[in-house]
Amino acid sequence: MAKRYTQLVGESLNTNDALSSGLRPLPTEITSFASTQAAWRFYKNDSVTLQKLQEPLLQTAHDSSVTYCKDYALIIHDWSRLNYRKHESKLDKYQISHETDVGYDLQSSLLISDKTGLPLAPVAQRLVTANGSYSSYQNKELDETIASHLDEVTTCIDYLEQQAFAKPLVHIIDRESDSVGHLRQWQEKGYLWLIRAKDHTTVTFEEQTLTCPQIANSLSFNKIREVSYHGKPQWQWVAEANIIITRDAHVRKNQKKTTVAGKPVEARLVVSRVMSDAGEILAQWVLITNVQGVDASEIALWYYWRWKIESFFKLLKSAGQNLESWQQETGLAIAKRLLVVSMACVTVWEIAAAESEEAHSLCAFLIKLSGRQMKWGIKFTNPALLAGLWVFLSMLEVMESYSPEELAVLRKTAKSFFG
Predict the structure, then answer these.
(1) Looking at 52-61, 270-279, 379-388, which range is the least confident one?
(2) How far apart are CA 336 and CA 164, in angstroms?
(3) What are the tens digits of pLDDT across the range 396-410?
(4) Residue 12 lies in a domain
(5) Residue 417 is assigned to a structural domain of this protein
(6) What's the per-residue H, E or C state across the chain?
(7) Which of 165, 246, 257, 317 is least enclosed, having the fewest CB within 10 Å?
(8) How many Å apart are CA 365 and CA 350, to the nearest integer?
(9) Phi, psi dihedrals of residue 94, rounded to the nearest 5°
């Protein structure tokens, strides 16, 4: 089983296109058909559970949190829809929103470094289907109750907090997490969180009830660092204030919405602005966190790194694995393959994160093998590293199968066809 898993990870070390989104078997004695058949059996095997497939990812996350995290292990939680509208064989897909938005809903939790923002490992995944949800962090394979996004991620956070990471976890979530009821739950359990506030959110500031943008406009900002905004260098400005969240929570029960009072939550409001040299506000993020003892500029940088999970989704989809073209017929099979492919992504991230001269040379070598052209100033991209690593593994397999003399004859024969 372990040998088959390792082979599948190796076969996932490539980028696919929509017309050829299957595994690419390495050039051994195994044929493409045999490899595909073996993969099909692997994903259909009941003993291959999501929890077992998550184990190597979780172990990598533990190791990486020690090596690459300084004070905190940052966990980014986000959701991405997988569109399988035209996949007639997937009978457990469902209509997520509008009539053409049909497929599965994927929730992922990604560990990143608090020093560099580099992605380290997906620590949890959950795939919602018409039949229920499949997750890598629950004991039962299928959960037939479909929870809301925030109830779902709360279960995930509960699980991650029990894993005894070497560094305290900080959970980073976008505006969907601006729910005072859930913030109170996380606060009472002692979890650390960083969220983006909605524009209409009201909090108590200097004994006044104000919206977060109103408070932002009253603060003094400090020029912090140069950042990339839409591909151009701009300056980031940061301000902060102490706030108290006192508003009632809105709870929906039996199709009715009721309000529930709760304990005040003391927190920090951190406002990050990207501004032009002329003083124009190009972008603004109003953040709320209960993390203390960390400079506001670092909190702003943590949230700036939230886009790394979007890059992960892109690597799974159009920029790499073409997840939305996979032909597995059930959500469970998709979820299993997703965890295998995630380990392939981790392999590339480890190469990218390494700082030795040997690792830098390997990156340059893999980019050359990939045949990809890099933009000026960019040494590598993760999809290019994936493609190059697969070519390199293929080369190694070939070199083990043919002697130098045989390769020399093949080289001479090939050259003869080029005149």
Answers:
(1) 379-388
(2) 25
(3) 878 888 888 988 998
(4) yes
(5) no
(6) CHHHHHHHHHHCCCCCECCECCCCCCCCCCCHHHHHHHHHHHHHCCCCCHHHHHHHHHHHHHHHHHHHCCCCEEEEEEEEEEECCCCCCCCCCEECCCCCCEEEEEEEEEEEECCCCCEEEEEEEEEEECCEEEECCCCCCEECCCCCHHHHHHHHHHHHHCCCCCCCEEEEECHHHCCHHHHHHHHHCCCEEEEECCCCCEEEECCEEEEHHHHHHCCCCEEEEEEEECCEEEEEEEEEEEEEECCCEEEEECCEEEEECCCCEEEEEEEEEEECCCCCEEEEEEEEECCCCCCHHHHHHHHHCCHHHHHHHHHHCCCCCCHHHCCCCCHHHHHHHHHHHHHHHHHHHHHHHCCCHHHHHHHHHHHHHHCCCCCCCCCCCHHHHHHHHHHHHHHHHHHHHCCHHHHHHHHHHHHHCCC
(7) 257
(8) 16
(9) -150, 165
User: Is pLDDT larger for residue 328 or for residue 107?
Assistant: 107
Average pLDDT, the chain: 86
Residue 185 lies in a domain: no
**What burial letters (b/e) apply to 217-230, b meaning 16+ CB within 10 Å?**
eeeeeeebeebeee
Between CA 171 and CA 224 the distance in angstroms is 23
Residue at 97 is within a domain: yes
- As beta bridge partners, residue 289 has 194, 268
Side-chain half-sphere of 205: how many Cα atoms within 13 Å?
A: 20
pTM given for the model: 0.86
Which residue matches tokens 């009539």?
99
Let me know if 18 is exposed, middle or buried by CB neighbors in 10 A (0-12, 13-18, 19+): exposed
Asked if 271 and 286 count as a contact pair (C-beta separation under 8 A), the reply is: yes
Q: How many domains would you assign to the chain?
A: 1
Tens-place pLDDT, residues 52-88: 888 889 999 999 999 999 999 999 999 999 999 999 8
